[in-house]
Description:
The chain is mainly alpha-helical and 157 residues long.
Amino acid sequence: MTFYVTDQKTVVIALLVFGAAAGILRDTVLAWRRLVPTGKIAEFFQDILLCLSLVSAYHMIAFVTNYGYVRWYGIASTFAGFFLYRATLSPLVLRLACIGVRLVIMTVSFILCPVRVLILLLVKCAAGIGRFTTACILRLDSQRKRKRLLRLSAMGF
Length: 157
């Protein structure tokens, strides 16, 4: 397994791009947290999941491009790509991610709103049917009582 200098250039460029992609993923998670507040425990597990996914993706890239070896320039180029992204494009992507997450939330609520209205309509119909049947039962019961009272009064009681 030989590893040439020309391969190192390709690996550095690939890991720079990976560092920028990691920054985009981090900003997307931050945008989600801003729009959908969660508790501290949920944020902790989100951070752990993000770190584990990025480390596993880095090791997959190292396995494919570096023949399974983790080299220092690979780690340095990943951090360089991440911090270059953070210094240049992060505010723009964070705004776009907030807009995207808000759009997803609005789309889901738009889809679920008619379902919610349908459920409320069904509940109101069921309540109306229940009130109607109760009123009919009470009316029949009061008519029976009146007839009984008329019979009793006709008998002289």
